[in-house]
Amino acid sequence: MAAHFKLEIATPERELVHENVTAAQVPGEQGYMGILPGHAPLLSELGIGPLTYTLMNGNKHTVGVYGGFLEVYPGGARVLASEADHPNEIDAARAEAALKRANERLLNPRPGVDIARALNAARRAKARLKLSGYGGIAPPGE
Prior knowledge:
Elements: E1 5-10, E2 15-28, E3 31-35, E4 42-45, E5 48-55, E6 60-66, E7 68-73, E8 76-81, E9 84-85, H1 92-107, H2 115-132
Helix pairs in contact: 1-2
């Protein structure tokens, strides 16, 4: 059995990761999935949160993913994310403002407000704040 597999993480705009890895923890819509070399083929919907992976030298890295799909195939795993970013790319102030807007829409809904969309916006903003190492006041619900 192989000791590694190819991990690809991409959005419609760019490729974030193309590495040989020994393990990955991927947020699925129904919970986290651990992927190791030799994993059975799989197709799953992505959730929102940190995707962590371990390089062959043992170094661990994290990428935030916010919806999309995961495909595990012989010798590799492909993450096609709707949105994704490295933690150092996250603008915490922008994420905090997005969380505030989403919470306002949820707490005081107006006619025509899509509650599911506001909930997903809040989940994405909370995940970005957590990934960025946000040092301010904890977001509501944390």
